Amino acid sequence: MKIAPKGEQARSNAALPKARTLIEALPWLERFHGKTVVIKFGGNAMVDEELKSAFAQDVVFLRYAGLNPVVVHGGGPQISAQLDKLGLESSFTAGLRVTTPETMDVVRMVLAGQVQRELVGLLNGHGPFAVGMTGEDAHTMTAIKRYAVVDGEQVDIGLVGDIVNIEAGAVKALIADGRIPVISSIARGADGHVYNINADTAAAALAVALGAEMLVVLTDVEGLYKDWPDSDDVISQLSASELEEMMPGLASGMLPKMEGCLRAVRSGVHTARVLDGRVQHSLLLEIFTDEGVGTMVVPDDEPPVTGGLA
């Protein structure tokens, strides 16, 4: 019998954890193969070069692993920076950007002309996958004017919209062709106006229209905190009803994200997850490991689960 030299045995043993990691991913690969995952890309992950690169790797990994990733992006930091450069006021009400016609011009320019193009370029560095579009294209998203609610009163925040219809045919055609759609959160209304759509809201609506397996929202926190700011304990899983009870106490920045998650799981999306986009490869850690790394929202009739599998 041939016995491997000690050096080769040591190298083989050192590689074992890598094999275990791959095997750990096997149930999730089986579970999610062929399923659509809508990912909202935002926060610090959009402005940090290493995080942007890691995100692109994760999305292409999903594509090669047999999933159908769809990316919906905003561009809050880039829009704010451009508005500052132009001397235009930038303000928020109830977590939504107040959007004047001048601001809307900047929003369209930054989202479709800067953020989207850069993300498409990063994805296509790994192969001919990504195709950029906006919610305006092929009537993919139709919006109506949205008002913010402050202390129970409606507040006009300009050209901010809420989605009333999704025509997902163009997105489905791209998926069927093996592409990765990258969609800017802009939509046209029946009144002819173009509206700024909160990217969390847009991603949730698109996930529902596509019958997605999951909605993933990347943000700048670890997940949904149990008792913020008194505690930094992250809730690993909660039901739609439990989330609804928490909504009135959420910070304004988290409100649109969790509203989107709630809408999604109550409209047929199997799970919605909020992940820390500041952590490299958090997308893969959440989907393909037993522990998961963020907060998962499930429908009320979903039995308790652990890890990334639901």
TrEMBL record:
The keyword Amino-acid biosynthesis applies. It holds the Pfam family AA_kinase. Transmembrane segments: none annotated. It is an enzyme of class 2 (transferase). It is found in: Cytoplasm. Keywords: Amino-acid biosynthesis, Arginine biosynthesis, ATP-binding, Cytoplasm, Kinase, Nucleotide-binding, Transferase. Its EC number is 2.7.2.8. Gene3D superfamilies: Acetylglutamate kinase-like. GO terms for molecular function: acetylglutamate kinase activity. InterPro entries: AceGlu_kinase-like_sf, AcgluKinase_fam, ArgB, Asp/Glu/Uridylate_kinase, Glu/AcGlu_kinase, NAGK-C. Pathway: Amino-acid biosynthesis; L-arginine biosynthesis; N(2)-acetyl-L-ornithine from L-glutamate: step 2/4. Residues 35-276 form the Aspartate/glutamate/uridylate kinase domain. Substrate binds at residues 75-76, 97, 196. CDD domains: AAK_NAGK-C (cd04250). It catalyses: N-acetyl-L-glutamate + ATP = N-acetyl-L-glutamyl 5-phosphate + ADP. SUPFAM superfamilies: Carbamate kinase-like (SSF53633). The record marks 40, 257 as: Transition state stabilizer. Its main location: cytoplasm. Belongs to the acetylglutamate kinase family. ArgB subfamily. Catalyzes the ATP-dependent phosphorylation of N-acetyl-L-glutamate. This is Acetylglutamate kinase.
